[in-house]
Amino acid sequence: MTIAAGTMKAGEPVFYVVDEHDHPEGSSTMLGFWIYLMSDCLIFAILFAVYGVLGTKYAAGPAPKDLFDLSLVAVNTSFLLLSSLTYGFAMLSMQQNRVGAMQAWLVVTGLFGLAFLGIELTEFAHMIHEGATPQRSAFLSSFFTLVGTHGLHVTFGLVWLVTLMVQVKRFGLIEANRRRLVCLSMFWHFLDVIWIGVFTFVYLMGMLR
Amino acid sequence: MSSDVHAHADAHHSADDHAGTRQGQLIGFGLSVVLTAIPFLLVMNGSLDKQVTALIIMAFAAVQVVVHMIFFLHMNTKAEGGWTMMALIFTIIMVVIALSGSLWVMHHLTTNMMPVHEMGSTP
């Protein structure tokens, strides 16, 4: 910038921005994080495509009907949906600068997330115990990859949640922490959006086959 | 929906923009519960034709994704100068190409594959 400005002669037209304009810290974080979420969305799209291709290749092994328990999935779905709502309430408390209420809602969100993971891991353990391991068939490989990747995202979301709760406890609701909490809220809601695809295409459509 | 709440939030505009209102959250939650419960009940009852059920639950999922985008992720066409919407539209195009392309190609590959019993020696 300075070089360009230095070699410029007075009176000549300028076709580019010579002056640095102001970029306050974190002003581009929201857009950047959104683009990360979109790239994550592409990862899930490919895993859904893999499941769509391989989801009917049972290799004479168990089919969705033999493995899935829809009432358990319904409970899991409601836990994740409730955690989205409670995170929304945490964001509203943050907006009103009520730190205690916000932390309480974050705890509730974390507990719902933990319950979701617990049920999912129980389901996985039950399936593996019955011999429906990822190695059993292409259907099970793609199932564990897709649902496992979502579960892994929820796990990292929980780690992030606890980290931010400690951050807020130590440093308060400073601008940087607000920004981080908003990023996590987008991440958390995004995972709920992915779960809509999982319960529809994997569990419900699986039971229809 | 949210202009009255945001009137005070000019200092932390970028961060607090994403909170929405309690009413908006509850509307989004209520809609999501309905849009989740109906597909589950349809599949658990199994009263409808399978093909019809599949179409209905896919439509409900699509609507619920939009509900989440509006009420939980607070998507609109103006956020970040329209660039979040641009990124979303681009991603949707990529997802549609990747999903429909994979399913289409692999479906034809499967249907045109020589049946196993005609391949001579089967492993």
In short:
The complex is a heterodimer of chains A (209) and B (123). Chain A is mainly α and 209 residues long.
Key phrases:
heterodimer, A: 209 residues, 7 helices, 77% helix, flat, B: 123 residues, mainly alpha, 5 helices, 67% helix
Notes on the protein architecture:
- The complex is a heterodimer of chains A (209) and B (123).
- Chain A is built from seven helices and no strands.
- Chain A is mostly helical.
- The longest helix of chain A has 34 residues, at 138-171.
- The model of chain A has no long low-confidence stretch (mean pLDDT 92).
- Chain B has 123 residues and is an all-alpha fold.
- In chain B, helix 3 packs antiparallel against helix 4 (50-71).
- Chain B is built from five helices and no strands.
- The interface between A and B is large, with 52 and 51 residues.
H/I helix tally of chain A: 7
Proportion of residues in extended strands of chain B = under 5%
How would the global form of chain A be characterised?
flat
Listing every helix as H and every strand as E from the N terminus to the C terminus, the arrangement of chain B reads HHHHH
Overall geometric form of chain B: flat
Largest sheet of chain B: none
Estimated helix fraction of chain B: 55-70%
Q: State the distance separating the first and last CA atoms of chain B.
A: 64 Å
Low-confidence stretches of chain A: none
Number of strands of chain A: 0
Order of helices and strands of chain A: HHHHHHH
Helix amount of chain A? over 70%
Largest sheet of chain A: none
Structural class of chain A: mainly alpha
Number of strands of chain B: 0
